[in-house]
Design brief:
Layout (H helix, E strand, L loop, with lengths): L25 E4 L13 H12 L3 E5 L4 H7 L8 E4 L4 E4 L4 E4 L6 H9 L6 E2 L4 E4 L3 H11 L3 E6 L2 E6 L4 H12 L6 E5 L5 H6 L2 E4 L5 H6 L2 E2 L4 H15 L13 E5 L5 E4 L5 E5 L2 H17 L4 E5 L11 E3 L8 H8 L6 E4 L8 H19 L4 E5 L18 E5 L7 H4 L4 E4 L4 H12 L16 E5 L9 E4 L13 E3 L1
Parallel strand pairs: 1-2, 1-10, 2-3, 10-11, 11-12, 14-24, 15-20, 15-21, 16-18, 16-19, 17-18, 19-20
Antiparallel strand pairs: 3-4, 4-5, 6-7, 7-9, 8-9, 13-14, 21-22, 22-23
Helix pairs in contact: 1-8
Length: 491
Protein backbone atom coordinates (compact mmCIF):
# COMPACT_ATOMS: atom_id res chain seq x y z
CA UNK A 1 0.00 0.00 0.00
CA UNK A 2 1.13 3.57 -0.58
CA UNK A 3 2.06 5.58 2.45
CA UNK A 4 -0.37 8.33 3.37
CA UNK A 5 0.07 11.26 1.01
CA UNK A 6 2.47 9.37 -1.26
CA UNK A 7 2.19 9.94 -5.00
CA UNK A 8 2.86 7.06 -7.41
CA UNK A 9 4.95 7.67 -10.50
CA UNK A 10 2.76 9.19 -13.23
CA UNK A 11 3.94 6.98 -16.06
CA UNK A 12 1.32 6.00 -18.63
CA UNK A 13 0.10 2.44 -18.76
CA UNK A 14 0.89 0.36 -21.82
CA UNK A 15 -1.03 1.41 -24.92
CA UNK A 16 -3.45 -0.78 -26.81
CA UNK A 17 -4.80 0.04 -30.21
CA UNK A 18 -8.52 0.67 -29.79
CA UNK A 19 -11.15 1.98 -32.13
CA UNK A 20 -12.66 5.29 -31.07
CA UNK A 21 -15.53 4.68 -28.64
CA UNK A 22 -18.97 5.26 -30.13
CA UNK A 23 -21.62 7.31 -28.41
CA UNK A 24 -24.47 6.09 -30.61
CA UNK A 25 -24.76 2.32 -30.82
CA UNK A 26 -28.37 1.89 -31.96
CA UNK A 27 -30.53 3.60 -34.58
CA UNK A 28 -34.24 3.16 -33.85
CA UNK A 29 -36.42 3.85 -36.88
CA UNK A 30 -40.10 4.25 -37.56
CA UNK A 31 -41.18 2.49 -40.75
CA UNK A 32 -44.01 4.18 -42.71
CA UNK A 33 -43.16 7.72 -43.72
CA UNK A 34 -39.66 7.37 -42.28
CA UNK A 35 -37.74 4.33 -43.49
CA UNK A 36 -40.31 3.49 -46.14
CA UNK A 37 -41.49 5.37 -49.20
CA UNK A 38 -45.01 4.28 -50.19
CA UNK A 39 -44.64 1.34 -47.81
CA UNK A 40 -41.38 0.00 -49.30
CA UNK A 41 -37.67 0.24 -48.51
CA UNK A 42 -35.75 1.74 -51.42
CA UNK A 43 -32.45 0.08 -52.47
CA UNK A 44 -30.39 3.15 -51.59
CA UNK A 45 -31.85 3.16 -48.08
CA UNK A 46 -30.98 -0.52 -47.69
CA UNK A 47 -27.39 0.12 -48.77
CA UNK A 48 -27.03 2.87 -46.19
CA UNK A 49 -28.44 0.62 -43.45
CA UNK A 50 -26.01 -2.16 -44.41
CA UNK A 51 -23.14 0.32 -44.19
CA UNK A 52 -24.41 1.38 -40.76
CA UNK A 53 -24.46 -2.23 -39.55
CA UNK A 54 -20.91 -2.77 -40.84
CA UNK A 55 -19.73 -0.10 -38.36
CA UNK A 56 -20.67 -2.43 -35.48
CA UNK A 57 -23.87 -0.63 -34.56
CA UNK A 58 -27.40 -2.02 -34.32
CA UNK A 59 -30.75 -1.29 -35.94
CA UNK A 60 -34.17 -1.45 -34.34
CA UNK A 61 -37.44 -0.89 -36.18
CA UNK A 62 -40.22 0.72 -34.14
CA UNK A 63 -43.51 0.73 -36.02
CA UNK A 64 -47.26 0.97 -35.56
CA UNK A 65 -47.84 -1.76 -38.14
CA UNK A 66 -49.07 -5.19 -37.26
CA UNK A 67 -46.36 -7.81 -37.66
CA UNK A 68 -48.03 -9.92 -40.38
CA UNK A 69 -48.66 -6.81 -42.46
CA UNK A 70 -45.07 -5.65 -41.91
CA UNK A 71 -43.67 -8.99 -43.08
CA UNK A 72 -45.73 -8.65 -46.24
CA UNK A 73 -44.41 -5.19 -47.20
CA UNK A 74 -40.83 -5.21 -45.84
CA UNK A 75 -38.45 -7.76 -47.33
CA UNK A 76 -35.43 -6.79 -45.23
CA UNK A 77 -36.47 -7.32 -41.64
CA UNK A 78 -33.20 -9.25 -41.33
CA UNK A 79 -31.41 -5.89 -41.10
CA UNK A 80 -32.94 -5.27 -37.69
CA UNK A 81 -31.88 -6.93 -34.46
CA UNK A 82 -35.36 -6.34 -33.11
CA UNK A 83 -38.67 -5.08 -34.45
CA UNK A 84 -41.02 -3.30 -32.07
CA UNK A 85 -44.40 -3.70 -33.76
CA UNK A 86 -47.98 -2.65 -32.97
CA UNK A 87 -46.79 0.70 -31.59
CA UNK A 88 -44.91 -0.89 -28.70
CA UNK A 89 -47.11 -3.88 -27.91
CA UNK A 90 -45.11 -6.63 -29.64
CA UNK A 91 -41.38 -7.44 -29.74
CA UNK A 92 -40.16 -9.55 -32.68
CA UNK A 93 -36.72 -11.08 -33.21
CA UNK A 94 -36.15 -11.50 -36.99
CA UNK A 95 -33.18 -13.78 -36.34
CA UNK A 96 -35.16 -16.42 -34.46
CA UNK A 97 -38.74 -15.56 -35.36
CA UNK A 98 -39.59 -15.27 -31.65
CA UNK A 99 -42.47 -13.00 -30.69
CA UNK A 100 -42.95 -11.48 -27.23
CA UNK A 101 -46.23 -9.87 -26.25
CA UNK A 102 -45.60 -6.75 -24.17
CA UNK A 103 -49.21 -6.19 -23.07
CA UNK A 104 -52.62 -7.87 -22.91
CA UNK A 105 -55.11 -7.85 -25.75
CA UNK A 106 -58.36 -5.92 -25.21
CA UNK A 107 -61.30 -8.18 -24.25
CA UNK A 108 -63.39 -9.73 -27.01
CA UNK A 109 -66.55 -8.00 -25.79
CA UNK A 110 -64.90 -4.65 -26.51
CA UNK A 111 -63.97 -5.72 -30.04
CA UNK A 112 -67.49 -7.01 -30.65
CA UNK A 113 -68.94 -3.72 -29.45
CA UNK A 114 -66.80 -1.76 -31.90
CA UNK A 115 -67.99 -3.93 -34.79
CA UNK A 116 -71.62 -3.61 -33.69
CA UNK A 117 -71.25 0.18 -33.54
CA UNK A 118 -70.04 0.33 -37.14
CA UNK A 119 -66.32 0.81 -36.64
CA UNK A 120 -65.07 -0.24 -40.08
CA UNK A 121 -62.49 -0.78 -41.37
CA UNK A 122 -60.98 -2.26 -38.22
CA UNK A 123 -58.00 -4.53 -37.83
CA UNK A 124 -56.93 -6.49 -34.76
CA UNK A 125 -53.33 -7.56 -34.24
CA UNK A 126 -51.77 -9.54 -31.43
CA UNK A 127 -52.60 -6.62 -29.12
CA UNK A 128 -53.40 -3.50 -31.14
CA UNK A 129 -56.83 -2.52 -32.45
CA UNK A 130 -56.64 -0.09 -35.36
CA UNK A 131 -59.14 1.94 -37.34
CA UNK A 132 -59.35 5.39 -38.91
CA UNK A 133 -60.75 8.80 -38.14
CA UNK A 134 -63.54 9.77 -37.45
CA UNK A 135 -64.16 6.54 -35.48
CA UNK A 136 -62.12 7.80 -32.50
CA UNK A 137 -65.29 9.16 -30.88
CA UNK A 138 -66.99 5.78 -31.03
CA UNK A 139 -63.85 4.07 -29.77
CA UNK A 140 -63.51 6.43 -26.80
CA UNK A 141 -67.17 5.93 -25.85
CA UNK A 142 -66.72 2.16 -25.94
CA UNK A 143 -63.63 2.40 -23.72
CA UNK A 144 -65.65 4.49 -21.26
CA UNK A 145 -68.69 2.19 -21.38
CA UNK A 146 -66.61 -0.90 -20.59
CA UNK A 147 -64.43 0.87 -18.02
CA UNK A 148 -61.21 -0.29 -19.69
CA UNK A 149 -57.66 1.05 -19.18
CA UNK A 150 -57.07 1.65 -22.86
CA UNK A 151 -55.65 4.63 -24.71
CA UNK A 152 -56.09 6.02 -28.20
CA UNK A 153 -52.99 7.02 -30.19
CA UNK A 154 -53.20 8.90 -33.49
CA UNK A 155 -50.97 8.52 -36.53
CA UNK A 156 -51.78 10.64 -39.59
CA UNK A 157 -55.47 9.75 -39.53
CA UNK A 158 -55.01 6.25 -38.14
CA UNK A 159 -56.58 5.52 -34.75
CA UNK A 160 -54.74 2.94 -32.64
CA UNK A 161 -56.14 1.45 -29.44
CA UNK A 162 -53.62 0.07 -26.96
CA UNK A 163 -53.37 -0.71 -23.24
CA UNK A 164 -52.51 2.32 -21.11
CA UNK A 165 -48.79 3.01 -20.97
CA UNK A 166 -47.97 1.10 -24.15
CA UNK A 167 -46.26 3.19 -26.80
CA UNK A 168 -43.15 3.19 -28.94
CA UNK A 169 -40.97 4.19 -25.99
CA UNK A 170 -42.15 1.30 -23.80
CA UNK A 171 -41.59 -1.16 -26.64
CA UNK A 172 -38.15 0.22 -27.45
CA UNK A 173 -37.23 -0.01 -23.77
CA UNK A 174 -37.86 -3.76 -23.96
CA UNK A 175 -35.76 -4.10 -27.11
CA UNK A 176 -32.83 -2.14 -25.67
CA UNK A 177 -32.97 -4.26 -22.50
CA UNK A 178 -32.62 -7.41 -24.62
CA UNK A 179 -29.52 -5.90 -26.24
CA UNK A 180 -28.09 -4.58 -22.98
CA UNK A 181 -28.06 -1.02 -24.30
CA UNK A 182 -29.04 2.29 -22.73
CA UNK A 183 -31.41 4.78 -24.34
CA UNK A 184 -28.59 7.27 -23.75
CA UNK A 185 -26.73 5.49 -26.58
CA UNK A 186 -29.66 5.42 -29.02
CA UNK A 187 -30.91 7.67 -31.82
CA UNK A 188 -34.61 7.69 -32.70
CA UNK A 189 -36.07 8.89 -36.01
CA UNK A 190 -39.68 9.28 -37.09
CA UNK A 191 -42.28 11.37 -38.88
CA UNK A 192 -45.67 11.36 -37.11
CA UNK A 193 -47.63 11.89 -33.87
CA UNK A 194 -46.94 8.44 -32.47
CA UNK A 195 -43.18 9.02 -32.77
CA UNK A 196 -43.06 11.66 -30.01
CA UNK A 197 -42.48 9.00 -27.35
CA UNK A 198 -39.76 7.35 -29.46
CA UNK A 199 -37.80 10.56 -30.02
CA UNK A 200 -38.27 11.70 -26.44
CA UNK A 201 -36.84 8.49 -25.02
CA UNK A 202 -33.68 8.43 -27.14
CA UNK A 203 -30.55 10.45 -26.47
CA UNK A 204 -30.96 12.07 -29.87
CA UNK A 205 -34.37 12.46 -31.51
CA UNK A 206 -34.50 13.19 -35.25
CA UNK A 207 -37.38 13.99 -37.59
CA UNK A 208 -37.21 13.35 -41.33
CA UNK A 209 -37.95 16.42 -43.45
CA UNK A 210 -41.45 15.16 -44.38
CA UNK A 211 -42.42 14.83 -40.70
CA UNK A 212 -45.37 16.63 -39.15
CA UNK A 213 -44.52 20.15 -37.92
CA UNK A 214 -45.20 19.21 -34.29
CA UNK A 215 -42.65 16.40 -34.44
CA UNK A 216 -40.09 18.66 -36.11
CA UNK A 217 -40.56 21.13 -33.28
CA UNK A 218 -39.92 18.38 -30.71
CA UNK A 219 -36.92 16.85 -32.49
CA UNK A 220 -33.31 17.70 -31.72
CA UNK A 221 -32.79 18.25 -35.43
CA UNK A 222 -34.43 17.60 -38.80
CA UNK A 223 -32.87 15.84 -41.79
CA UNK A 224 -32.50 17.61 -45.11
CA UNK A 225 -33.88 14.67 -47.09
CA UNK A 226 -37.26 12.98 -46.68
CA UNK A 227 -38.37 9.42 -45.94
CA UNK A 228 -35.69 6.74 -46.39
CA UNK A 229 -33.23 9.23 -47.86
CA UNK A 230 -33.48 11.19 -44.62
CA UNK A 231 -32.74 8.06 -42.59
CA UNK A 232 -29.79 7.32 -44.88
CA UNK A 233 -28.53 10.87 -44.29
CA UNK A 234 -28.76 10.29 -40.53
CA UNK A 235 -27.19 6.83 -40.61
CA UNK A 236 -24.29 8.01 -42.76
CA UNK A 237 -23.57 10.90 -40.41
CA UNK A 238 -23.56 8.60 -37.39
CA UNK A 239 -20.99 6.36 -39.08
CA UNK A 240 -18.93 9.32 -40.30
CA UNK A 241 -18.52 11.22 -37.03
CA UNK A 242 -20.95 9.85 -34.42
CA UNK A 243 -23.03 13.06 -34.81
CA UNK A 244 -20.15 15.13 -33.45
CA UNK A 245 -21.33 18.19 -35.39
CA UNK A 246 -24.76 17.96 -33.75
CA UNK A 247 -23.50 18.20 -30.16
CA UNK A 248 -24.53 21.88 -29.74
CA UNK A 249 -28.12 20.89 -30.58
CA UNK A 250 -28.31 18.10 -28.00
CA UNK A 251 -29.14 20.00 -24.84
CA UNK A 252 -32.12 18.04 -23.45
CA UNK A 253 -30.04 15.73 -21.26
CA UNK A 254 -27.40 18.15 -20.00
CA UNK A 255 -26.41 17.85 -16.35
CA UNK A 256 -27.14 20.65 -13.88
CA UNK A 257 -24.03 21.88 -12.06
CA UNK A 258 -25.65 24.70 -10.13
CA UNK A 259 -27.47 28.02 -10.36
CA UNK A 260 -25.97 31.44 -11.00
CA UNK A 261 -26.73 34.72 -9.24
CA UNK A 262 -29.74 35.30 -11.51
CA UNK A 263 -31.25 31.94 -10.61
CA UNK A 264 -30.48 30.50 -14.04
CA UNK A 265 -29.81 26.77 -14.16
CA UNK A 266 -26.25 26.12 -15.38
CA UNK A 267 -25.75 22.81 -17.17
CA UNK A 268 -22.89 20.88 -18.79
CA UNK A 269 -22.82 18.30 -21.60
CA UNK A 270 -23.23 14.75 -20.28
CA UNK A 271 -20.68 13.18 -22.61
CA UNK A 272 -17.05 13.57 -23.61
CA UNK A 273 -16.14 16.08 -20.90
CA UNK A 274 -13.04 16.01 -18.71
CA UNK A 275 -14.03 17.59 -15.39
CA UNK A 276 -11.70 18.37 -12.52
CA UNK A 277 -13.09 19.07 -9.07
CA UNK A 278 -10.40 20.87 -7.09
CA UNK A 279 -11.43 20.73 -3.46
CA UNK A 280 -10.63 19.11 -0.15
CA UNK A 281 -12.59 16.01 0.81
CA UNK A 282 -15.11 17.71 3.14
CA UNK A 283 -16.25 20.06 0.37
CA UNK A 284 -15.71 17.89 -2.71
CA UNK A 285 -17.97 15.10 -1.41
CA UNK A 286 -21.27 17.04 -1.51
CA UNK A 287 -20.45 18.43 -4.96
CA UNK A 288 -19.53 15.01 -6.31
CA UNK A 289 -22.64 13.36 -4.89
CA UNK A 290 -24.90 16.13 -6.19
CA UNK A 291 -23.45 15.73 -9.69
CA UNK A 292 -23.68 11.94 -9.64
CA UNK A 293 -27.28 12.06 -8.44
CA UNK A 294 -28.12 14.24 -11.43
CA UNK A 295 -26.15 11.97 -13.75
CA UNK A 296 -28.16 9.00 -12.46
CA UNK A 297 -31.48 10.85 -12.72
CA UNK A 298 -30.76 11.65 -16.36
CA UNK A 299 -30.32 7.95 -17.10
CA UNK A 300 -26.52 7.88 -17.37
CA UNK A 301 -24.38 5.36 -15.50
CA UNK A 302 -21.14 5.91 -13.62
CA UNK A 303 -18.22 4.01 -12.15
CA UNK A 304 -16.31 5.59 -9.26
CA UNK A 305 -12.75 4.39 -8.64
CA UNK A 306 -11.91 5.06 -4.98
CA UNK A 307 -8.28 4.29 -4.02
CA UNK A 308 -8.72 5.18 -0.34
CA UNK A 309 -12.09 3.51 0.28
CA UNK A 310 -13.56 6.68 1.77
CA UNK A 311 -16.14 7.53 -0.92
CA UNK A 312 -19.68 7.77 0.37
CA UNK A 313 -21.68 5.93 -2.25
CA UNK A 314 -24.63 7.83 -3.74
CA UNK A 315 -28.02 6.25 -3.05
CA UNK A 316 -28.61 3.07 -5.04
CA UNK A 317 -24.93 2.60 -5.91
CA UNK A 318 -23.30 -0.81 -5.46
CA UNK A 319 -19.94 -0.83 -3.65
CA UNK A 320 -17.46 -3.51 -4.73
CA UNK A 321 -14.24 -4.17 -2.82
CA UNK A 322 -13.24 -3.38 0.75
CA UNK A 323 -10.19 -2.57 2.87
CA UNK A 324 -9.48 -6.30 2.99
CA UNK A 325 -10.29 -7.39 -0.57
CA UNK A 326 -9.93 -5.62 -3.95
CA UNK A 327 -12.99 -5.56 -6.21
CA UNK A 328 -13.24 -8.48 -8.60
CA UNK A 329 -13.06 -6.98 -12.09
CA UNK A 330 -15.33 -9.66 -13.56
CA UNK A 331 -18.00 -8.76 -11.02
CA UNK A 332 -17.50 -5.04 -11.66
CA UNK A 333 -17.83 -5.34 -15.43
CA UNK A 334 -20.87 -7.60 -15.12
CA UNK A 335 -22.55 -5.04 -12.87
CA UNK A 336 -21.64 -2.08 -15.08
CA UNK A 337 -23.03 -3.87 -18.15
CA UNK A 338 -26.52 -3.19 -16.77
CA UNK A 339 -27.74 0.25 -17.94
CA UNK A 340 -29.51 0.79 -14.61
CA UNK A 341 -26.58 0.01 -12.29
CA UNK A 342 -23.78 2.21 -10.93
CA UNK A 343 -20.70 1.18 -8.97
CA UNK A 344 -18.06 2.42 -6.56
CA UNK A 345 -14.88 0.35 -6.77
CA UNK A 346 -13.01 0.42 -3.46
CA UNK A 347 -9.42 -0.31 -4.55
CA UNK A 348 -7.77 0.44 -1.19
CA UNK A 349 -6.77 -3.22 -0.75
CA UNK A 350 -4.81 -3.40 -4.03
CA UNK A 351 -1.18 -4.03 -3.08
CA UNK A 352 1.35 -1.52 -4.38
CA UNK A 353 3.17 -4.26 -6.29
CA UNK A 354 -0.07 -5.08 -8.16
CA UNK A 355 -1.32 -1.55 -8.78
CA UNK A 356 -0.19 -1.07 -12.36
CA UNK A 357 -1.35 -4.48 -13.52
CA UNK A 358 -4.69 -4.05 -11.75
CA UNK A 359 -5.41 -0.59 -13.15
CA UNK A 360 -4.17 -1.42 -16.62
CA UNK A 361 -6.65 -4.28 -16.73
CA UNK A 362 -9.41 -2.07 -15.31
CA UNK A 363 -8.85 0.80 -17.78
CA UNK A 364 -8.70 -1.47 -20.80
CA UNK A 365 -11.74 -3.52 -19.78
CA UNK A 366 -13.73 -0.36 -19.19
CA UNK A 367 -12.66 0.79 -22.64
CA UNK A 368 -13.83 -2.46 -24.21
CA UNK A 369 -17.19 -2.06 -22.45
CA UNK A 370 -17.43 1.45 -23.91
CA UNK A 371 -16.80 0.07 -27.39
CA UNK A 372 -19.37 -2.70 -27.10
CA UNK A 373 -22.24 -1.32 -25.00
CA UNK A 374 -21.33 2.32 -24.31
CA UNK A 375 -21.20 1.81 -20.53
CA UNK A 376 -20.40 3.27 -18.09
CA UNK A 377 -21.10 6.81 -19.27
CA UNK A 378 -19.06 8.51 -16.53
CA UNK A 379 -15.75 7.36 -15.08
CA UNK A 380 -15.06 9.11 -11.77
CA UNK A 381 -11.56 9.06 -10.30
CA UNK A 382 -11.25 9.94 -6.63
CA UNK A 383 -7.81 11.14 -5.54
CA UNK A 384 -6.54 10.85 -9.09
CA UNK A 385 -2.98 11.62 -7.98
CA UNK A 386 -2.92 8.16 -6.38
CA UNK A 387 -3.95 6.38 -9.58
CA UNK A 388 -1.81 5.44 -12.60
CA UNK A 389 -2.24 7.82 -15.52
CA UNK A 390 -4.93 6.77 -17.97
CA UNK A 391 -3.55 5.38 -21.23
CA UNK A 392 -3.63 7.65 -24.25
CA UNK A 393 -6.03 6.70 -27.01
CA UNK A 394 -4.69 9.13 -29.57
CA UNK A 395 -7.06 11.84 -30.76
CA UNK A 396 -10.27 9.97 -29.97
CA UNK A 397 -12.50 11.44 -27.30
CA UNK A 398 -13.18 8.99 -24.49
CA UNK A 399 -16.81 8.03 -24.34
CA UNK A 400 -16.90 8.16 -20.58
CA UNK A 401 -16.74 11.50 -18.84
CA UNK A 402 -13.61 11.65 -16.71
CA UNK A 403 -14.14 13.39 -13.41
CA UNK A 404 -10.96 13.86 -11.38
CA UNK A 405 -11.33 14.56 -7.69
CA UNK A 406 -8.08 16.11 -6.44
CA UNK A 407 -6.29 19.45 -5.89
CA UNK A 408 -4.71 20.45 -9.23
CA UNK A 409 -1.13 20.90 -7.98
CA UNK A 410 -0.71 17.14 -7.52
CA UNK A 411 -1.49 16.22 -11.14
CA UNK A 412 0.85 16.34 -14.15
CA UNK A 413 0.50 19.38 -16.41
CA UNK A 414 -0.38 17.05 -19.31
CA UNK A 415 -3.39 15.76 -17.39
CA UNK A 416 -4.47 19.27 -16.40
CA UNK A 417 -4.24 20.42 -20.02
CA UNK A 418 -7.03 17.97 -20.91
CA UNK A 419 -9.50 19.50 -18.43
CA UNK A 420 -12.61 20.94 -20.11
CA UNK A 421 -14.30 22.15 -16.94
CA UNK A 422 -12.70 23.10 -13.64
CA UNK A 423 -14.94 23.16 -10.55
CA UNK A 424 -13.51 24.63 -7.35
CA UNK A 425 -15.07 24.84 -3.92
CA UNK A 426 -13.91 25.08 -0.31
CA UNK A 427 -10.81 26.76 1.11
CA UNK A 428 -7.92 28.29 -0.85
CA UNK A 429 -9.99 28.46 -4.04
CA UNK A 430 -8.02 31.35 -5.51
CA UNK A 431 -4.73 29.53 -4.88
CA UNK A 432 -6.09 26.43 -6.64
CA UNK A 433 -7.06 28.55 -9.63
CA UNK A 434 -3.60 30.11 -9.75
CA UNK A 435 -1.90 26.72 -9.42
CA UNK A 436 -3.95 25.42 -12.34
CA UNK A 437 -3.20 28.54 -14.37
CA UNK A 438 0.57 28.21 -13.84
CA UNK A 439 0.64 24.47 -14.53
CA UNK A 440 -1.23 24.79 -17.82
CA UNK A 441 0.02 28.18 -18.94
CA UNK A 442 -3.58 29.40 -19.15
CA UNK A 443 -4.03 33.00 -17.96
CA UNK A 444 -6.82 33.62 -15.52
CA UNK A 445 -9.65 35.75 -16.91
CA UNK A 446 -10.22 39.27 -15.69
CA UNK A 447 -12.57 39.73 -12.73
CA UNK A 448 -11.68 36.30 -11.34
CA UNK A 449 -13.19 36.07 -7.85
CA UNK A 450 -10.96 36.41 -4.82
CA UNK A 451 -11.36 34.82 -1.44
CA UNK A 452 -13.23 31.52 -1.17
CA UNK A 453 -16.70 30.42 -2.24
CA UNK A 454 -19.22 30.41 0.58
CA UNK A 455 -20.65 27.15 1.89
CA UNK A 456 -22.81 25.58 -0.82
CA UNK A 457 -21.10 27.60 -3.57
CA UNK A 458 -18.54 26.73 -6.25
CA UNK A 459 -16.59 28.32 -9.08
CA UNK A 460 -16.80 26.94 -12.61
CA UNK A 461 -14.28 27.70 -15.36
CA UNK A 462 -13.67 26.38 -18.88
CA UNK A 463 -9.92 26.98 -19.28
CA UNK A 464 -9.83 25.72 -22.87
CA UNK A 465 -12.42 28.26 -24.03
CA UNK A 466 -10.90 31.64 -24.90
CA UNK A 467 -12.06 34.47 -22.63
CA UNK A 468 -14.33 32.16 -20.63
CA UNK A 469 -15.12 33.74 -17.24
CA UNK A 470 -14.99 32.08 -13.83
CA UNK A 471 -18.68 31.68 -12.95
CA UNK A 472 -19.84 31.61 -9.34
CA UNK A 473 -22.62 29.09 -8.71
CA UNK A 474 -24.70 27.68 -5.90
CA UNK A 475 -25.33 23.95 -5.58
CA UNK A 476 -29.02 24.39 -4.76
CA UNK A 477 -31.62 26.37 -6.67
CA UNK A 478 -32.70 29.62 -5.00
CA UNK A 479 -35.98 29.23 -3.15
CA UNK A 480 -37.61 31.79 -5.43
CA UNK A 481 -36.75 29.85 -8.58
CA UNK A 482 -39.06 27.13 -9.90
CA UNK A 483 -38.48 24.67 -12.72
CA UNK A 484 -41.11 26.48 -14.78
CA UNK A 485 -39.35 29.84 -14.60
CA UNK A 486 -35.71 28.79 -14.40
CA UNK A 487 -33.81 29.54 -17.59
CA UNK A 488 -31.33 26.87 -18.67
CA UNK A 489 -27.86 28.14 -19.53
CA UNK A 490 -24.63 26.29 -20.24
CA UNK A 491 -21.11 26.55 -18.87
Amino acid sequence: MLAAGATPPQEPLRRRELRPPMRYLALCCDYDGTLATDGRLLPETVRSLEHFLASGRRLVMVTGRELDDLKRVCERLDLFQYVVAENGALLYDPGTGAETLLAERPPERFLAALRNRGVQPMSVGRIIVATWEPHETTVLRAIRDFGLELQVIFNKGAVMVLPAGVNKASGLRAALARMGLSARNAVGVGDAENDHALLGMCECGVAVSNALPTLKDAADWVTTADHGAGVAELADEIVLNDLASRVPLLTRHRITVGWDANGDEIRVPPYGETILIAADAPTSGPLQNALLARVRDRGYTFCVVDPSGTQEAPQGTVVLGSAQRPPALDDALKLLANPSDNAVLNTSAVAESERYGFFESLWLRLQRASEQIGLPHWLVLNEAQRLPTLPSYGSSTPQTVLQIMTPPSTLPAKTLAQVDLLLITGKDARRKLEDFSRATGTPLPENTPRGDPDAGELWAWRPRVSQAPVVQLTLAAPASVTKVHSRKAHV
